[in-house]
Every structure is written in structure tokens, then in C-alpha cells.
Amino acid sequence: MFLARIDGTLTSTVKHETLEGCRFLIGQRLDADGGAIGDPLVLVDTLGAGRGTTVLVTTDNETLRNRVGKTTPARMVVCGLVDEPLQIHRTPVQPLPDGRGSVPVPSRDRQGAVLNRGATSHSRSVGRNSK
Amino acid sequence: MRLGIVRGSVVLSEAIPALRGTRMVIVEPVTAANLELNNGLGGGKAVIAADQLGPGIGQMVGFVEGRTAANPFSPMDVPVDAYCALIVDQVDFQPPLSIGSADRKVQK
Fold this sequence. Notes:
The structure holds two protein chains of two kinds.
Chain A: E1 2-11, E2 23-29, E3 41-45, E4 54-58, H1 62-68, E5 77-81, E6 93-95, E7 102-104, H2 117-129
Antiparallel strand pairs in A: 1-2, 1-4, 2-3, 4-5, 6-7
Chain B: E1 2-10, E2 23-29, H1 32-37, E3 47-51, E4 60-65, E5 82-87, E6 90-93
Parallel strand pairs in B: 3-5
Antiparallel strand pairs in B: 1-2, 1-4, 2-3, 4-5
């Protein structure tokens, strides 16, 4: 499953028989930072998602097989509408010198002093112990 | 399902029994940038897809990838992993201007 943003619609007359009557949307998969990634995708929608909506997409064909028939090839189905706004929290990290894992980047005040020293030194010691 | 533009068809002179009689088309996947411009270009790596709809060259189609692409041939076991599922009449694609193409990562 992944998140996608609905960016368009699609109409089609000639299509596989099981897809008759399906509503098609064009969505773009969203990355962890909320940006669109990859080629545009044709999604089957039953929830009435509109343009700009963030939706949850399943790639499980079973959902559609049960609804439109066992011979359907399509599998990307909108299975949920995400509450807006989409909130993704990302803590900045820096790689460890040995390249094994990473630690959170310490927050600094305007003079450059580390603010969350306790938490950071703890993370570093965990990194050393794991060698 | 991704979108692609039909660039041609494939005819096999010799094939395993399961594939005999299967029409196949060459599909060039359409990238987000080209779909936004609606310039008739694809831009992706060409895919060979099984086809039962008969799209013309240059037409835009929706093609399914993966194991489920063989479902229309069930109960026959056909080694097909891409299937042309629909021919596009009209496509309306407008990504939000506020984000535009700056948020789109370059695909390698």
C-alpha cells in the first residue's frame, strides 16, 4: 500500500470487460517527504476521491477480483481517503563515520551550541556499542 | 496500471505453447512530465504487453504490470506479466502548480 495524490481523471470506452463501469483516476505516488515520485498511475476509485485528495492505494488484486470478477487484471484501487493535511515528521539525521546507521542531527541555538546534548550523546554511544 | 503509448507490435515465429496466439504490443510508458505536456511522447523504458483490445500505433493505453496481468487468460497458465487493459479516450492531468515539477524526483 502507498499514498498517492489524485492529479487527474481518465475516460476509456474500449477496456477489459471487467473494468466496465469503473471510475478511473490518475494519481501520483507520494514519497516520504510528500513529493510525487514515479510515473502517473491509473487508479480504480469507488470512494469518490477528488482532485488534490491524498488517498491510500492498495496493489492487492483481491479487492477488485471480489468486486468485478476473477479475470480482472487491474489491481491499484483507492481504498482510503487520507485526512488533510498530510503530516510527515522527519528528524534530520547524519550518517555515522563507519557508514553503519545514522544518528539524529543535534539541534543548535543561534550561537551554535548543541541544545539536546543528552539525547545526542546517548544516540552516539548506542551507535558505538552496536559495532 | 501505468499509461503508455503503443509503438508497435511483436510477432513470434516460434513460441512456447502457452503464448501461441497471444497478440503483443510494444508500449512506451508515459512519464509525469510528458503526460502534463500531453506531447504524445512516452519517455519510459519500453514494455511488451499482451493485448486483446487492438489499439492503434500512437494510441495511449493503460497497461497492468505484475502477476495479475495474466488473470484475463485464467484458468490457462500464461507467462504474461504486462497486459493492455484499456484504451484511453481522454486524459485530464493537472498536477498542482504550487508544487509543480520541483517536487518530482528524477528517476534513474
